[in-house]
């Protein structure tokens, strides 16, 4: 999974919902818009997802005050329903997400290659915040 000289960062969360529901919330574009942001002053106004090997996903993340925004997108390398998603981001970094069912809970582990613009801890914190948002949203619906 690791490209030459890339640091891999791992974040994880356990969500108190079954894996089928976790998968649906993680992959459905309408649901993605409800949780895929790192803080309350950000949002994801658009999301698209062609969930298949070779398919593309994209979402637009923006500060609510309009001061900054960016497109987050990639191409799927592997898709195993309710188990695994692997993709390559637009900047060629690799991401791997594992969904592990544990009765009525789901443990999600996401590993990604770090980019070299921001400190590792900042990247880990941002991705973990999104995972925590996923948990909060998924357990509330």
From TrEMBL:
This is Polyketide cyclase. Residues 17-139 form the Activator of Hsp90 ATPase homologue 1/2-like C-terminal domain. It comes from the Bacteria. Belongs to the AHA1 family. It comes from Dyadobacter psychrotolerans. Coiled coil: none annotated.
